[in-house]
Amino acid sequence: MTVYFIGAGPGAADLITVRGARTLAAAPVCLYAGSLVPRELLAECPADARLVDTSQLNLDEIVAECVRAHEAGQDVARLHSGDPSIFSAVAEQMRRLDAAGIPYEVVPGVPAFAAAAAALKRELTVPTVGQTVILTRIAQQATPMPPGEDLATLGRSGALLVLHLATRYVDRVVDELLPHYGAACPVAVVAMASRPDELILRGTLADIAGQVKGAGLVRTAVIVVGRTLGAEQFRDSHLYSPERDRHVC
User: Fold this and answer.
1) Which residues constitute the signal peptide according to the record (predicted)?
2) What's the distance, CA 113 to chain centroid?
């Protein structure tokens, strides 16, 4: 058997990958994060599949479900929201499976920041304006940030920042970024990206905190900060330039 960590995407059920949907449809056991994964995806599971909502389970209990399936020779579809590569708590599960000798694979999904960019109709990297995107979060009591990864330090780069799990602390975000980006820097907040209740807030570092509080956003949102959000006058990419020699690899 194999445990398949599947990125379920940012929210819309049809944004799961073809591979993810096929894997889900073939697995007799599905462990899913009930508070984040769209319920419509469970319809892809076999009719007799064992469905386990992990939203109220701890790590030991989740791994115990995988061990149980392993002993029964049953594949497991482990559904995570977004993409397993970032902020998914997959690393500690993999470590436990390694220790238990249980094989696993990862099926990537559409990450929240990509869905947010699509909702904003923006390319996050723009020629001559910004070519770097930093995906990060801010320190909280439960999970501190490693040394050198605090928001003030990252902000010195001037790169476009995508902050996950940060809307509850929007005042801190603004205070730490203002010295580096300035009050007029474009900011967008996308909540529930790709879902029917998607909400987009657009503003600047000067007014975004008030908008976030007014909308009552505390979770399931990303904050995007950077100049590329407002870029209009920029040089065309060399990729499609008529001056490019297309005979050179």
Assistant:
1) none
2) 6
